[in-house]
């Protein structure tokens, strides 16, 4: 092990160089830190994707707030570097004045590459839910519709790729507060043939598009 210590140092220096700019805002996060799917990072991996309008994202230690107007597309959020079957509790509010706005437990896995959503609030009832509806599941006292949708040559955490989205869409909007028992969704997805891979980051996120306007503000806890 000792023989490789210089390699470890080199690797960590490289990791520092390539860290997302926002990682520097919180030099020593415990377990809970800025999700990389904030506006800056999205622009990083989303080079063919036009983002327009005003999005003012303010991450905090235990949550975030964002105000937006005339927004073409954005995702901002806060969460954990590595997703798992944690229970995620959020408390706050979202107001939509224009466009489409959604609030989700949001994350990615690799092998297979999957972008997943547990949609707690959508301004239009659908949010990202499209493609094929596979059934319903009751989690945390509410019914969610389960969807799968294939993204073809779309931005991802591995660059432009073709991958599946797994979506649980809460039938009753919940923009204020609640707890998402992620294992309930992951188990239901698996039973529907939707397998996750190795967890990448996991957040509570606000997304908007279509000249979206409004604001969103949450504190987030999880175990
Ligand atoms: C998450 O919630 C479920 C269902 O309420 C509970 O059984 C489980 O113990 C919780 N897990 C944690 C880590 O709190």
UniProtKB/TrEMBL annotation:
This is Endo-1,4-beta-xylanase. Residues 1-19 form the signal peptide. It catalyses: Endohydrolysis of (1->4)-beta-D-xylosidic linkages in xylans. One of its GO terms (biological process) is xylan catabolic process. It comes from Lophiotrema nucula. Pfam families: Glyco_hydro_11 (PF00457). The active site is at residues 115, 207. Belongs to the glycosyl hydrolase 11 (cellulase G) family. It is an enzyme of class 3 (hydrolase). Coiled coil: none annotated. One of its GO terms (molecular function) is endo-1,4-beta-xylanase activity. Pathway: Glycan degradation; xylan degradation. Its EC number is 3.2.1.8. Residues 31-220 form the GH11 domain. The lineage of its organism: Eukaryota, Fungi, Dikarya, Ascomycota, Pezizomycotina. It comes from the Eukaryota. Keywords: Carbohydrate metabolism, Glycosidase, Hydrolase, Polysaccharide degradation, Signal, Xylan degradation.
């Amino acid at each position: 092990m000792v023989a490789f210590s210089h390699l470890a140092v080199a690797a960590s220096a490289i990791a520092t160089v390539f860290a997302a700019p926002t990682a520097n805002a919180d030099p020593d996060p415990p377990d809970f830190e800025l999700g990389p799917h904030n506006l800056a990072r999205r622009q990083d991996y989303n080079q063919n994707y036009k983002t327009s309008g005003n999005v003012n994202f303010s991450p905090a230690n235990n949550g975030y707030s964002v105000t937006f107007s005339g927004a073409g597309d954005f995702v901002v959020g806060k969460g954990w570097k590595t997703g798992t079957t944690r229970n995620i509790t959020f408390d706050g509010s979202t107001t939509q004045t224009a466009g489409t706005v959604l609030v989700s437990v949001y994350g990615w896995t690799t092998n297979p590459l999957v972008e997943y959503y547990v949609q707690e609030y959508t301004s239009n009832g659908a949010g990202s839910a499209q493609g094929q509806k596979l059934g319903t599941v009751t989690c945390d006292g509410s019914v969610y519709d389960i969807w799968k949708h294939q993204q073809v040559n779309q931005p991802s955490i591995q660059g432009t790729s073709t991958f599946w989205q797994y979506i649980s869409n809460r039938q009753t909007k919940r923009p204020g507060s609640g707890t998402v028992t992620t294992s309930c969704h992951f188990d239901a997805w698996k039973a529907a043939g939707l397998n996750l891979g190795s967890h990448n980051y996991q957040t509570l996120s606000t997304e908007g598009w279509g000249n979206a306007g409004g604001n969103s503000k949450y504190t987030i806890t999880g175990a």
